[in-house]
Amino acid sequence: MTKEYVVGMTGASGAVYAIRLVQELCRAGHRVHLLLSESVWQVFTLEMGWKVEHGDLAAVPTLFGLPEDADLQIHGSRDYGAPVASGSHLTAGMVVIPCSMGTLSAIANGSSDNLLERAADTHLKEGRPLVLVPRETPFNKIHLKNMLATADAGAKIVPAMPGFYHRPETMDDLIDFVVGKVLDAMHVEHTLFRRWGDREKE
Q1: What are the residue boundaries of the Flavoprotein domain, all occurrences included (predicted)?
Q2: What are phi and psi of 9, to 5 degrees?
Q3: How buried is 50 (Cβ within 10 angstroms: 0-12 exposed, 13-18 middle, 19+ buried)?
Q4: Which among 42, 72, 126, 160 has most CB atoms closer than 10 A?
Q5: Cα(180)–Cα(191) distance, integer angstroms
Q6: Tens digit of each residue's pLDDT (9 = 90 or more) over 37-78
Q7: Which of 188, 154, 4 has its CA nearest to residue 82?
Q8: Euclidean distance between the first and final Cα of the chain, in Å?
Q9: Binding site for FMN: which residues?
């Protein structure tokens, strides 16, 4: 069944996780609202090697390798007119991936200085699934307290920590494991990695 999801992408390292998640959700036929922070554009250049102008939303679907019929709605950080800025707009959940420590802090403290933070706050207040994927190491005590605060408020913390029991052979295997765990947290079916015990069934 087609559902509607929100994917928030911050400037933390790990852009490839968000890209893979959007690809998978769109491939499954879901509608995706992609919320981009201001620092994402620099990460696109540094990590992905993309030569894209700051704020060029129209270039994103092609850069993400999405088909023309993908149901992707892209919103800039100040687009408060976006549907997902309001709790009256129903979604099946939101993922912030990767989640920077600055964004984590804003969500933990109820600050809504941009659309991404506002949408995350909306999902918490409406009791809808919110998954945060922190990509930082090591964590300091403030980071840990903020994770606990968001978890207490109803968010699920899924750190970008790939497992190895599925015997990954490529970088894509490691990326798919993390994205698969995010999809599990959102109760979205997928086949991105081999589950524990599946090897023994062969």
Answers
A1: 3-185
A2: -120, 115
A3: middle
A4: 160
A5: 8
A6: 999 999 999 999 999 999 999 999 999 999 999 999 999 999
A7: 4
A8: 30
A9: 11-13, 37, 100-103, 135
Give one DSSP letter per residue of 2-32, joined into a string: --EEEEEE-SSS-HHHHHHHHHHHHHTT-EE
Residue type, 9: M
Structure token digits, residue 58: 């129209």
- In sequence order, the β-bridge partners of residue 170 are none
Q: How far apart are CA 83 and CA 85, in angstroms?
A: 5
Residue 152 pLDDT > 70: yes
pLDDT for residue 83 is more than 90: yes
SS3 state of residue 132 = strand
Confidence of residue 200 (pLDDT cuts 50, 70, 90): low
Domains of the chain: 4-197 (3.40.50.1950)
Both tokens of residue 74?
């892209």
CA distances to 43, 119, 148, 162, 198 from 34, in Å? 16, 11, 25, 23, 33
Percent of the chain with pLDDT over 70: 98
Residue numbering of the annotated binding site? 11-13, 37, 100-103, 135, 165, 181
